[in-house]
Amino acid sequence: MKNNPKPKYEIRSFQDLANVINEKNVDMLCGNLYGALRQFIEMRKKVPEIKFMGIDWIDDGKIEIRNPDVTLIIQEPESKPKMSDKKLSYNPKPEAKKKKKTPSIEDKVNSFPTKNKEGFTGFEIRFFMKENYPRITMKEFNEKMGHVTCQMKDGETVFYPCDIITTIRCCLEKRDQNALEFD
User: Fold this and answer.
1) Which of 35, 61, 162, 165 is the 20 to 30 A CA-CA neighbour of 117?
2) Torsions phi, psi of 100, nearest 5?
3) Cα dist from 49 to 43, 45, 74, 76, whole Å
């Protein structure tokens, strides 16, 4: 039986992304790109000079966010010879992680970086949920959210963090919003 290699794409520009993305892989690719960007942010904390240059993406049909190879350029001081593109991976070792108190729903929602200070766009909600609550489907989330107050900003719908918190709580508790939670 032959082992068929999975397609691998080097995504270095928006055009590279446009050449790869389609209706079938958009959720998978966005989730993986988001994972790569989160990795890059962690790596930049340790090496502030790095630049994000793209990702190597393997079309393996997996939707969950995982640790893809992130291609970075490290800018060395001018006195040293410059390094060529290097593939680095950020994979924190389990023993290196400190045991922390699990953050609350409020902490997770309120600390998530959003484009608008008022709240989350639909795109940001999807990535937040995949990262923090992968067992809650977007269908379930949308059904529990129901009708909420939101605003339009720069042509995008912005949902308030308090509604995101309530909806997550309802999903986890397998219930609908009660009269005091409904707005």
Assistant:
1) 35
2) -120, 160
3) 10, 10, 6, 8
- From the list 52, 51, 55, 50, the residue with the least C-alpha distance to 66 is 55
Both structure tokens of 111: 């600390």
Phi and psi (nearest 5°) for 54?
A: 140, -175
Sign of torsion, CA 46 97 29 144?
Answer: negative
Question: 141 and 44 in contact (C-beta within 8 Å)?
Answer: no
pLDDT in tens, 116-147: 999 999 999 999 999 999 999 999 999 998 88
What's the order of all strands across the beta sheet hosting 69-73? 8-11, 51-58, 69-73, 86-88
**CA 176 to CA 120: how far, in whole Å?**
21
Counting every residue, how long is the chain? Answer: 183
**Is the pLDDT reported for residue 64 higher than 50?**
no
pTM (predicted TM-score)? 0.47
- Scanning 112-183, the segments in alpha helix (DSSP H) are 122-132, 138-145, 161-173
